Amino acid sequence: MFSxxxxxxxxxxxxxxxxxxxxQRLQRVERATEALAESSLPFVQEAVENISEKIVSFEPAVSxxxxxxxxxxxxxxxxxxxxxxxxxxxxxxxxxxTAIHLNSRRRPxxxxxxxxxxxxxxxxxxxxxxxxxGEMANRAGxxxxxxxxxxxxxxxxxxxxxxxxxxxxxxxxxxxxxETIEKDVIDRYICYGDPDDSDTPDEGVYADITKLAxxxxxxxxxxxxxxxxxxxxxxxxxxxxxxxxxxxxxxxRVCVVVLSAHQALSTMDMALMxxxxxxxxxxVLIFVNRIDTLVDPRGDSIKIYESIKNTLAKNGVAEGxxxxxxxxxxxxxxxxxxxxxxxxxxxxxLLHWAEKSDSDLQDPQDFRQIAFDASGVGELHRxxxxxxxxxxxxxxxxxxxxxxxxxxxxxxxxxxxxxQQIDQERIDNLNLPALRKRLDDIxxxxxxxxxxxxxxxxKVIEERLLRSRETFVASAIEALESHLATxxxxxxxxxxxxxxxxxxxxxxxxxxxxxxxxxxxxxSRALEEYDLLLEDNFGIxxxxxxxxxxxxxxxxxxxxxxxxxxxxxxxxxxxRFWRFGKRKLHAKRYEDVIRAETTPLIAELLExxxxxxxxxxxALIKKFLSxxxxxxxxxxxxxxxQDPSNxxxxxxxxxxxxx
Length: 659
Fold this sequence. Notes:
single chain, alpha/beta, Rossmann fold, nine-stranded mixed β-sheet, disordered C terminus
């Protein structure tokens, strides 16, 4: 199923060439790390293991998102050169987040496909609350609608349980693994098909309860360690998988937003817009798919481009979002060498696109190359590679290079001591208990000071988020009262929540920037303390000057802010929302809805984004403190070997270090 053929020649010198060059550079760094591992010094071994783990586990993820039937799976098949991997027929569509791991170094033994199911708690929550849609209905006070949603979910559950029979409960929380990837396996686990189609009775049999799917594929012509994530359409019926999708995007380093050419020309889905607004513009690539359905692909693309740019600007999206036009269908025809079977309308569109080309359109191979070039897949490859190399790739190289330099410097210092380049009188005057107490004090005081700063900062961000909500409430109520005064109670009204999300996002990113400053400050101050300790006790100068500061990455995008709120919905529910009682009751009820919806949103932003980012930064500080502690202990051990008669350097049990 995954045989390599001449189709890869279509990629020419483009594609993932830049990413392959990056991996070659990373491999050189890895070899330098392995050379350090030859040292027997304790602090070196742990540091080398840490660097090696970072390199091996580096697997930049690219999430592909879009509406149902936007052609995401077709495009993804083209991106990895496997035209039939993911189903892209008219009826089946991807219902499960599917991670495709290319040439993974962390592949489980004898596993090519791994499917994980919802556990009992997750499944029960869906039925009890009716999914996120039911939860929103409850918070908004739509009890009748909440019951209706819950009944629909119950019906879905009963259908699923009947289909799976006695094994249903055994499957919850479990996983299935396969040594090979077969089409019927993928169809059973990740695709919804036509339930009335008797020819495919097993299609989608496990789809309702499958939470995540991982496919592992080795393709020699592709870079090591690259992950593509195919996601369900953003308009998931009960929003069962919305949060899973948002988490996947948060962990990704490139987000490819797939729009259908006809959809893009009219209006961009607001669920997609919310995601784009909460991801750094540089990490977003918009791929306008299916230009093969346009009569004039080149001319219409210009109009679509302007329409998308205007929509992005209206929603406050910063410059930097790249827009690419193409056709996954054209790419797959080229890769599969089936251009002779191309649909007539698509062929006509391609000929229109290529009418100014110098190539011989009658030559099958030239036509095949034109189809691939027009597909935009090569350009998308290059854009993805650039963002990975200049983003997480650059940070990784910086990080491990700094660690290698630091280890090398420490090894050099210990070597000098081993060569007895430290004054003997200074050694004789060492006060080991005082030295070790000072080491502990540096670690304890550094962490206590940092924790206090973060505690104060958490109060600041919580206050800013609450203030953002109050500002939004005030403006929304003012707009509502103005609307009621003008149009009365018998006209539908809505208020866009973009400003609320923008204020919260600004507060989050600004505060995370302050976290980074505190982390850098904690490192610098502790390094100064270690510098003094080494100079006072061993005469080692400029330790801090020679050490590289740790690389501190920015926070992952706060994709929680992209989740759908009841404020975003415009179902028939809202038509009845305003038709009751007095005007002040309208305002009070709407204010209650805003508070009910934003309270869990603020909690998630703090607990699942801010706190996680803080923990990542704190771990960097703890690691640095531990490394310095081990470095000093290694120096003491080295001095003890020089003068075994000196009991000062007893390496017996030491007091427990600060956690």
